[in-house]
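Re: that chain you flagged

S.,

Sorry for the slow reply, it's been a week of failed gels. I finally had a moment to sit down with the sequence you sent. For the record, here it is as I used it:
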Amino acid sequence: MDNNIEKLKKSYTEVPIPEELDFIVKKAIRQSRMKRTNMRWIIGTAAAVIVFVSGVNSSPAFANAFSNIPVLGKIVEVITFREYKVDEDTYNANLKVPAVTNLENKTLEQMLNNKYLDENKKLYAEFQKDMDDLKKQGGGHLGIDTGYEVKTDNDQILSIGRYEVNTVGSSSTTMKYDTIDKKNQVLISLPSLFKDNAYIALISENIKQQMLEQMKSDPDKTYWVKKDDKDTDPMNDYQSIQKDQSFYINKGGKLVISFDKYEVAPGAMGIVEFVIPTDVIASDLVSSEYIK
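Prediction finished late last night. Pasting the structure tokens below so you have them in one place:
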């Protein structure tokens, strides 16, 4: 069993990460996939899941746990593959590395899992270097926490959010998402959902409206957006989302746009999200395959 686990770990760490992770969804929608539904395949896949999970949970090298309990018929899973920890008085690190398992598209699975592993390895190495530097200078406070949450997991969509919280004096929080079409086995990017770049203006204007409405109804909410034409506050400079703005597709099939802490609002607001009404972007969607 230990040899099998070592082989599994090696497969995750030795496969090079391609520079481009973005699979074109339009192509996937046009192409039909052959469905393999015979009982032998189903039983074989379920057995593979059991073997893999058993290996992960039985080895102290991983020190992991499932993000949720698998149930019959739920094949694709997200697990904690590895953890990096430091707990030394004023130096604290807790980095959890997710891994996607049992995608049919093994190239996509490998790319995602190597990306997750590499980004956490890099963060851990940087933390150790910064910690050593602080110790040489007489000490200080340093902390980092990374992890993940499954935002959506249904028959078609798997949306994984990965957070990073840094604490040096004040804290900063960032969130990254990967949204996977489990049926067509492709990674969905924001531009791939739309016919052209018109979505940028459509979404940006709707978010401005939502910001203004929220501030009007709740005095505790503040966004850095101009209140009107007379607003000359230089802080209120939000104009537009980025072409590749962080996003995910929620359980209701709605597009959710996410902004990191301090990106469009004071730190007290944390990470902020805006659910975009489908009728606002319907004219520019490639199809209704994902956004309902």
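What I noticed first: The mean pLDDT is 82.

Talk soon,
D.
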